[in-house]
Amino acid sequence: MSIRDFSEVLRSGIGSFAKAAAGVQYLITVFFSILFVIMTTLRLSAIAFAAALASGCASAASDFDAYSHSGMLTTALDAVNLIQDSVRDKINDTTLAGRANGGALWLDQHYSDVKSKRLLRDDAHTGGHRSRTAMTNLGADIKTGNGMFGVVYSYGHSDTDTRNSDITLDGEAHYYGVTIFGLLSAGPINLTGSAGYVRLSGSSDVATGGTTGIKGNIWKGSVGLNVPFELATIQWMAYADIEGTHITPHNFSGGEPDNALIWQFPIGLKASRDFAVGSFTLRPAADIAVVPMAGDTRQATLINGALRKTRVAPDTLYRAGLGLTLKGQKGEISAKYRYEAGEGGLSSHSGLLSGRYIF
């Protein structure tokens, strides 16, 4: 075959390939054009369906998203308090001064059941909530001379329902947190402090249909002092703290909730006494406190274009607790019960099981 013949064959082959490629390109273009039309039609149908569904639930969302928001924030505050309870127990330990220098590992398991009859009220509606929260706190601390420093990792889960309202909301949330805390002895007075972060992730379901997603960041901190003393063979500790909790919810469907900065000022007295039981020590303890609250205890929330005001926390909490600890040479186990009450028919029962290894 001559070079001219080979060139003619090559040119003919290239031309045939180009025509085939153009045909394939045309078929691909037609295929994707048809696919685009189908997808656009399905998308418009889904939007129309969602709009119809939203219009059917609009009145419920407009009236009751604020209930969900307030109930979830109230529960989040209770979850943070369960973390702070562990911190407070460690830095307000009436026997801390007698503990030898060294470290400790501990695990606290909290559970609380909180009810309110009229807490979540605004100008249009009055209602309450019930929340059940479990919180696990895994911590470590070290005592050196006149100081103590520790860290605690937390995971919790809560379930929140409305009560005495015209519609049923059921919410749940998960909490993931880390907190550092410390104590410095300054003569007869101990200075205390803590700081931490908690991640909130949850949702609330409306009985008639629809789900509201709630996520948020919670920053918390405290400063305070305690004064240990002995009277009538009983170890006492008076304490006072300033505790701040900043909750920043986001991704809240249907509304734009404000951030909430809530202040608590617990003022309390704790007492304990040791009894020898063989080679162990049995320590009953009691704790009472009054907790004034301030800040954003009443929330202004924009729900579907309407400004709604709901209540997040009472003005004052009244707290009482009883505990029992069995202590050995290197470890101890504890059980504690706490009751709280406040305005709006608020009542809270919580329990604690704890184990600690001291080395």
What is the overall pLDDT average? 79
Strand proportion, as a percent range, falls in over 45%
Alpha-carbon distance between the termini? Answer: 95 Å
Shape estimate: elongated
User: How are helices and strands ordered from N to C?
Assistant: HEEEEEEEEEEEEEEEEE
From the alpha carbons, calculate the radius of gyration and give it in angstroms.
31 Å
Low-confidence stretches: 42-64
Largest sheet: 14 strands, antiparallel
Given helix and strand content, the structural type is: alpha+beta
Give the strand tally.
17
Helix content: 10-25%
Helix count, per DSSP?
1
Key words describing this protein structure:
alpha+beta; 14-stranded antiparallel sheet; three-stranded antiparallel sheet; 17 strands; 25% helix
Report on the structure:
- This protein is an alpha+beta fold.
- The chain is 25% helix and 57% strand.
- The protein contains one helix and 17 strands.
- The protein has one helix spanning 3-91, and strands at 102-116, 128-144, 147-163, 169-186, 189-206, 211-231, 234-250, 255-257, 260-264, 267-272, 275-277, 280-295, 298-303, 306-311, 316-327, 331-342, 346-358.
- The strands form two sheets. Strands 1, 2, 3, 4, 5, 6, 7, 9, 10, 11, 12, 15, 16 and 17 form a 14-stranded antiparallel beta sheet that branches. Strands 8-13-14 form a three-stranded antiparallel beta sheet, covered by helices on one side.
- The chain is elongated.
- The protein starts with a helix and ends with a strand.
- Residues 42-64 have low confidence and may be disordered.
